[in-house]
Write a structure and sequence with these properties.
Elements (H helix, E strand, L loop, with lengths): L8 H14 L1 H25 L17 H29 L7 H30 L7 H4 L2 H32 L4 H14 L1 H32 L7 H30 L14 H6 L6
């Protein structure tokens, strides 16, 4: 791996650009992710303008509607396309032709999608459970409601943060090593606990980058909505710009998480398969990965 830290966003962007230039298949997968992402946003955008009175009190029955099932299908296809970016870049990094075989890419894509389904179920299940627990119904606990809500929101954020990091590590082991699900999860939890501060910084960096990109993307759409009425700005041009930006960001994100996995496992191009760290090696490993 390069001597510079792979967790600097300019370094990751440089790696993503090189990978995109040298591997046309990576660009094709990123383009597929971008198209599916914009399709999802175009479907969900009208829902953000709805008044609170029109929103359903129980949103879970609405998930079985045809529109929701179509969105779910699009999200699953997007996850599958993202898995191809991860596998193509990992195969190029380790010089492993077996990762680029159609059967391996199909199997790896299904594993990646299954991990996303499991994580999404956790994300949907926790808020639903919290919203249906009568914590604030009695008069004695009403005064503690703001504090209790703050604690629950903090615990929810930490659970989402932890599950996302563990899922990324487990996917890396499942796709790139001979470990099975149970061993991958156990080792991923150990790695997360060992490098919890480093993982937190990484997750917050990705979150900040995604938030910044979303703001810039919304600014582009707003400028087209207002300025485009007075200037000759084609909607096709604006869509092409958004498509290109989402393509590069989708590739950048997957390369970022691959570099995160490689850093925590201390692997380089000389190691073909990222084998698990022994318990003794994990205990003696530094708190900041090299």
């Amino acid at each position: 791996m390069p001597s510079s830290s792979p967790f600097r966003i300019p370094t990751i962007a440089h790696h993503s650009w090189r990978a995109t230039y040298m591997n046309p298949g990576l660009l094709a997968s990123g383009l597929a992710v971008a198209i599916l992402t914009l399709l999802t946003k175009s479907i969900l955008f009208p829902a953000f303008g709805m008044s609170p009175e029109k929103l359903p009190t129980d949103p879970f029955p609405a998930l079985l509607s045809p529109a929701s099932l179509f969105i779910l299908l699009v999200l699953l296809l997007r996850a599958f396309a993202s898995s191809q970016i991860f596998l193509l870049q990992a195969g190029d990094f380790f010089r492993r032709p077996d990762l680029l075989a159609p059967r391996a890419r199909l199997t790896g894509g299904f594993l990646y999608v299954a991990a996303d389904i499991l994580l999404g179920s956790v994300f949907l299940g926790i808020p639903y459970f919290l919203l249906n627990v009568p914590l604030f119904g009695s008069e004695t606990t009403r005064a503690l409601s703001p504090l209790a809500i703050s604690i629950l929101l903090g615990a929810l954020f930490f659970a989402i943060f932890s599950a996302t990091i563990i899922k990324r590590l487990a996917v890396g082991y499942l796709l790139l090593s001979p470990l099975h699900l149970r061993s991958s999860l156990i080792l991923s939890v150990r790695l997360f606990l060992r490098y919890r501060y480093f993982s937190m910084l990484t997750f917050l960096s990705v979150l900040f980058f995604a938030f910044l990109f979303t703001i810039l993307e919304n600014l582009v759409m707003l400028q087209y909505a207002f300025i485009g009425q007075h200037l000759a700005i084609s909607g096709v041009f604006v869509y092409a710009v958004l498509l290109l930006a989402n393509t590069l960001v989708s590739i950048l994100t997957e390369v970022f998480w691959l570099n995160f996995f490689l850093a925590l496992t201390n692997k380089s191009r000389k190691v073909v398969r990222p084998t698990p760290l022994l318990q003794k090696e994990l205990g003696e490993a530094p708190l900041t990965p090299s």
